[in-house]
Design goal:
By secondary structure, this protein is α/β, with parallel strands linked by helices. The protein is built from ten helices and 15 strands. Bound molecules: threonylcarbamoyladenylate (TXA) and magnesium ion.
Length: about 325
Amino acid sequence: MDADPDTIARAGALLRQGRLVAIPTETVYGLAADATNDEAVAAIFAAKDRPRFNPLIVHAPDAAAALALVRADARARRLADAFWPGPLTLVLPRAAGCPVSLLCSAGLDSLAVRVPAHPVATAVLRAAGTPVAAPSANRSGRVSPTTAAHVRAEFPDAAGGRLALVVDGGPCPVGVESTVLDLTESEARLLRPGGAPAEAIEAALGAPVLPAPPDMLDDGDGESARAGALKSPGLLASHYAPARPVRLVAWGEPPRPHGPREALLAFGPADAAGFVCVERIGAEGDLAQAAARLFAAMRALDRPGIDRIAAMLVPETGLGRAINDRLRRAAAPR
Ligand code: TXA
Ligand code: MG
């Protein structure tokens, strides 16, 4: 439903009743539930087929509400001032008496919190009046949705009746998920590159940000979990949904087709001769535009008549890190 005031009020009421509601954010659409309701949070994991060891981000309408859920230090407050509302998620120790379901922390002592920069998300969060857990609104391991139509395509049966409402706020302006930054130790660590560039975080912190440790594993849709927390080694394989295989073309290398039915995901004005079709993201070399179009382009190429997808990597700077991260996951062995 279009995000008019009635729909927003209804979304808030459904969330308070423990139902699932898909909402737009500036990054991707989220599958939202009342984070303080164990059954509602469990329904998110069931709807997505998400492994229970992969924790959820909790969303709040403003920094005060988000930071009340965690033990925020000076670094956290500085980053909240600099980036919220916006595409940065902070992982911090849970506050004493934190009302958020332990399921959101997936067995860790920490909680991931963020304040999205999307007027519809903010309005729904205020209408709900409770912290809201929201992973990307896709089946686990698949491409994140950046339109309401993508969400409906992910859950054609409304997740077995669990998904009560999709709030349509138009296409997501950022297009890749939030940056996830771990602040539970003395040095900040990047767990997932995303919409807030690492360079900007380092500038705001006045300190370097460590890369993810080697034991961080991803389950393919821009999500990651520590190896130690994994229950089943069979879940380690990286995978990402386009159903079709994806291979990478190095930055700066002219793309050449492999076989007659290969499609090209092109960054910039690349020559696409010989490819069966092309989706262009970031036509003028614009990384923000490329991020905003990335997931829709991947979905558009995942269709009959195409056997495989060649994806051009982008410069490894700013938003380019998040774009390349998602492309590498898409191309990882399945
Ligand atoms: O942009 C976004 O962040 C979107 C929108 C809907 O807000 N949400 C999103 O959620 O991408 P999800 O569940 O798809 O990804 C959450 C990421 C995962 O990599 C998860 O492992 C990590 O955040 N995460 C969540 N809680 C964590 C915690 N306590 N410690 C470490 N990583 C955590
Ligand atoms: Mg996700």
